[in-house]
Amino acid sequence: MAPNISIRESIRWIPDPFSEPTSTLVLTSAGKRFVDIRVLKDPSPSHDASASTGNTGNLKPFSALDWAFAGTSSSTIASPDADGNAVAHCEWRHWIDHRTEKPEDVVDEGWMYPIDGDDQRSLEKGRMVNPETGRMTEYEEIWRDVEAVAIPDREEGEGEAGEGEDEEDEEDEEVETDEEGEEEEEKVSAVLILEEPEQRARGMVVRIGQYCQGVLRVKGEFSLERWEWVGEEKGWERKVRMGSLFLPCGPAMDVLGMEVGSQVRHGDFRWEVVELDYF
């Protein structure tokens, strides 16, 4: 599958009406690794405005977190619905989850239905625990796919530093051009993984086009970040940060010189590039 950016537009717990109390973004790689971060919306408009500009107003308490998890996904074609539309049965296997230190025990599955006349949106139906009641409840969610954007290459020494990143010799590559002879910019998908069983540490960072986000658990400590490219003038902006652990979002956003198997070192931890695709 192609790398995917998906934003949840609304959710409802049956029989309640639809609403969207969170900012929910899911980044899924071609290898079906994903990071899903759901941050509660701040009720104060003035605070929202300050938090969305620059990199100083984005540190939020964990009380503002609805859910954050990462893992791998799969889907199979299920029986058609009553109208004959194809329905997909999807499963998300949690590898990291801020709600539990036993993410493998989480059951996360749903059925995806097409929405007539809308190629960008889909309807998900399923059952999961309603955090407000603690009971298994039927739910419906509307998801919108977002097209990935190619980001201009950074000049040498510009932008976020990839702390502890291994230096790799760049190989000469043939530059693709469009029919008018102009250079075509490629979209980037990258995944970095940390797994240190002795330290009870697991982390995943996924970058798709103009978005990058990651989660990390070390024993009982958890951290997350979300970044977005907002244009050439401002570049990458960190939209959300929780916790104090290091996440290699910088290297994921600036992949020059990296390849599958490259490592990003920080302290005793080594993050490995397990996917790097241009599309």
UniProtKB/TrEMBL annotation:
Listed Acidic residues bias regions: 155-186
Cytoplasm found in the keyword field: yes
GO CC field: cytoplasm; nucleus
Region (Disordered): 151-188
Subcellular location(s) of the protein: Cytoplasm; Nucleus
Alphabetized InterPro entries for the sequence: Hri1, Hri1_N, Hri1_N_sf
One Pfam family in the UniProt entry: HRI1
The UniProt record lists the keyword RNA-binding: no
Annotated family: Belongs to the HRI1 family.
Protein name: Protein HRI1
Organism: Hortaea werneckii (Black yeast)
